Amino acid sequence: MEIKTFEYSTAGETKMKSMSKLEAVMWSIALPGFSQLLTGQLFKGTFFVLLEIIINVFSNFNTAIMFSFLGKIDEAFWVIDYQWLMFYPCLYMFAMWDAYRAAMPSDEKLSFLPFVFCAYSVTVGLMVSSNVSMFGVKPGPVFFPMMCLIPGLAAGFFVRWLILAFRKKV
């Protein structure tokens, strides 16, 4: 299933192009709200972008990302405002699911589960990141929550599979 997006030509004509599920998710990974803006959902897209900017600024997330990539994990822990950053995984995953949902076939069931489980696992990963050490190295408040996406996806797809298999038998 593809969703329609709008391209505006200089002559004022509106042309349509298609967006796949993968493209919708990839634009949302780039920045929550981009996919919605591309599909003409201007209010929702602008809302997601503004929320992302507000949370990003108040949590000092970009500074923590910079410190993390420079290997200064202690500084990344120091600058993070966890009260703000804990909103980020839910916003990020919801915007991504919303973009995916707009492009998915209407008969696809329970596609939200992997996104929801990722939001949970990344949030928990953020909360416990200061206590996690792997092979004597702390991944930090940026890299450890990102690693938590994998078990979140696995759990979400597994629970989805279980529910769909159970429904098929009933």
Description of the structure:
The chain is mainly alpha-helical and 170 residues long. It has one domain. It is 68% helix and 7% strand. The chain is built from 10 helices and 2 strands, in the order ββαααααααααα. The protein has helices at 21-30, 34-38, 42-59, 61-69, 73-79, 82-85, 88-103, 112-128, 140-147, 149-169, and strands at residues 3-8, 14-19. A two-stranded antiparallel sheet has the order 1-2. A hairpin with a 5-residue loop joins strand 1 and strand 2. The two termini are 28 Å apart.
Low-confidence stretches: 12-16
- Number of DSSP-assigned strands: 2
Strand arrangement within the widest β-sheet reads 1-2
Radius of gyration: 18 Å
Condensed summary:
By secondary structure, the chain is mainly alpha-helical. Helices cover 68% and strands 7% of the residues.
